[in-house]
Sequence to fold (448 residues):
Amino acid sequence: MQAHPVEPSPSLSPIHRQTRIHYLEWPTVPKELGRETIAISAEDARRLAVARQHLAGKLPAKAAREHILSVVRDLTFVQWDPIAVVAPSHVLSFWNRVGDFPLADLEKLLWDEKKLFLHWVNFAASLVLTEDYPLYYSMMKRYPESIGMSWGSRKPNTRKFLVENRELGKSMLKQLKNGPMQLTQFKEYKPAKSTDGWTPGSPVARMLFHLEMKGEIMVAGHQRNRNIWALSEDFLPKGVVKKEILEEELERLTVQRAIRALGTASAREINYYFPRGRYQNLKEALQSLEQDSTIHRVRVAGVQEKDERYIHDQDLKLLESTGDDAFQPRVSLLPPFDNLLGVRGWTKRIFDFDHRLEMFFPQSKRKFGYYVLPILWGDRLIGRIDPVMEKDNRRLLINSVHAEPAAPRDKEVSSKIGDAIQRLANFLGAREVVYSSRVPAPWRSFLH
Fold:
């Protein structure tokens, strides 16, 4: 069927107008499915995403450890990165979503209460929920066969490495029976340069990665940003569920987690978001979930793409509410590895924002800076700042501020950006905020 959208009342502002969901016939859907496609605006897709990612609404009056867990539960993971030009990326991700929180709370959740643990989810170290251990355990038990086809030669190369270095793995596990160890403490360790800049050069370092992916070891602490490794059986709480989920059901579960974290997502975006490159039968999982109406096809106005896009059935009510007074925009200063930015193609398609990690570029090729924080206002990414926290001087230096071409220039928005930067400075313990002259003219009166 085709429903006709109702025009919003002129008395309602764009922030508060009522969301309209209507349905389109989808001629390419097999008739036996009998499914319709939900048509929504790009604004609705953005608002659903920021709502699902805890980036809209009021911040908690007082951040508690349960707020941190709630963020990880809805995002599924938060990428861990210790680079502290401003603050570690994962710290900034939580700060944007829960407000000022004691850093000790995160440490307690990791090392004392063990409600979080570190695992390579998307071929990057990430904070994940211990309650989700069955998801990871199932992939661990099938590793390296749980690596998906999209990672090309990684699976056969891993098989080969594990066979050729079987005795090394056995020796390392035996050494860990005597207690936790750092990389350099293994008797076989010898420093070696990486051949590609990403893969560890040392066979011991490579084996640590694979033993973690197999679930035999895990990070049990840190010392000066160096991992301390332990046997999983020694570190994990006794009550952790070690249940292997069948591959078909596992993919149904992970697909839903990815879609809900992103609001709407295509197969490519799901595969890249969570768990990256680990799907064996993604197409079949999507068909199964659509067949029982757990997910629905959705078309976002103005987004040109070949792949079908999906929304979770449980988020339809939330989608309806994104256009009324329940949607409360705020300013967030997103870190480079934030979940809203992690799937670059999705961020470009849904937010029309091209996020690049310029820290990996030579200085001559950087357009915005080294450690750039995109500025999120409501449901729009409107600019970027290039900050540095000078710990010795206890000041937050803003090297530059950049506005997107269509960014609002009004005083309200610029004052809110200034307030957010000041809140960040307070959280970091800075005594002052110092701006360079590289600030867009319309925002300059509040950013100086």
Observations:
- The CA atoms of residues 377 and 413 lie 8 Å apart.
- Confidence is low (pLDDT under 50) at residues 1-19, 25-34.
- The first strand starts at residue 22 and ends at 24.
- The longest helix spans residues 411-428.
